Amino acid sequence: MTASITLPSPAKLNLFLHIVGRRPDGYHELQTLFQFLDYGDDISLTLTPDQPGIRLATPIPGVSEEDNLIVRAARALAAKASGDLPGVSIAINKRLPLGGGLGGGSSNAATSLIGLNHLWQLGLGLDELAETGLTLGADVPVFVRGHAAFGEGVGEKLTPAFPPEDWFLVLKPACNINTGKIFSEQGLTRNTSRIRIAPAFEGDASRYRNDCEDVVRRLYPEVDQSMEWLKKFGPARLTGTGACIFGRFPTESAARIIWESKPSGIIGFVAKGVNVSPLHQKLTELE
């Protein structure tokens, strides 16, 4: 049995996010296009046969162990095992900002599920892992499945998609956004017309937007100011409920030129959009 493994936990972007209705349980019906970035966290999983249990070697400031999706994912997977499992120590090299709309927590959960399935030799398929992931968060299944996808429902109904693998400049304004607050706002658009599975950005790009963007920009001036700056260089968009915004560029050098001129006080990065998750690329190398 392999004793240790380090796997990528990539970011995602919502290339668009349409809110097409509201369900009786209060959740919103979405249509969105997920694409991964070749940038994210790294998670190291080490088996500890002499120390049973699940331990987080690198706690995340401000996140309790009970709320940490890495720990919750590991416990959910352990509950599916029929026999005793060796203990595991989990460490994370955290690059993705918390509360950025990049899916960091969901990605961490998915990487933990897939990595522990491998280390513990449970033999579970992606369907079962995605089903477990959905109990942790609506975005976890897309990370488990590992392919860019058109998402519907609360984001869990996935159809593989193939958007252009462009370069992105991602900026994180200096604010943290409460997703629940955004989805409960009176002024939020909730009746965007449904579209059929669309090849991303073919035809009129104005058909695609992020329905959370107007509300977020109104409530968070930092996002509004960053958006105004980035829009000087081309279309800019919010991912998820933010706070991160992104602009797309045809080349890495084009994105980096803009990055070099960013306003002070804003953090961010340049990354390539990829349709196969770096996590699944790494797993292919291990097979």
TrEMBL record:
Keywords assigned: ATP-binding, Isoprene biosynthesis, Kinase, Nucleotide-binding, Transferase
Catalytic reactions of this protein: 4-CDP-2-C-methyl-D-erythritol + ATP = 4-CDP-2-C-methyl-D-erythritol 2-phosphate + ADP + H(+)
Biological process according to GO: isopentenyl diphosphate biosynthetic process, methylerythritol 4-phosphate pathway; terpenoid biosynthetic process
Residue span(s) of domain GHMP kinase N-terminal: 68-146
GO molecular function: 4-(cytidine 5'-diphospho)-2-C-methyl-D-erythritol kinase activity; ATP binding
InterPro entries cross-referenced by the UniProt entry: GHMP_kinase_C_dom, GHMP_kinase_C_sf, GHMP_kinase_N_dom, IspE, Ribosomal_Su5_D2-typ_SF, Ribsml_uS5_D2-typ_fold_subgr
Top enzyme category: transferase
Active-site residue list: 12, 139
Binding annotation for ATP: 97-107
Pathway where this protein functions: Isoprenoid biosynthesis; isopentenyl diphosphate biosynthesis via DXP pathway; isopentenyl diphosphate from 1-deoxy-D-xylulose 5-phosphate: step 3/6
Enzyme Commission number(s): 2.7.1.148
Kinase in keyword set: yes
Superkingdom: Bacteria
UniProt domain GHMP kinase C-terminal: residue ranges: 209-259
Function statement: Catalyzes the phosphorylation of the position 2 hydroxy group of 4-diphosphocytidyl-2C-methyl-D-erythritol.
Protein family according to the UniProt entry: Belongs to the GHMP kinase family. IspE subfamily.
This protein's name: 4-diphosphocytidyl-2-C-methyl-D-erythritol kinase
Provenance organism: Marinobacter antarcticus
Gene name tied to this protein: ispE
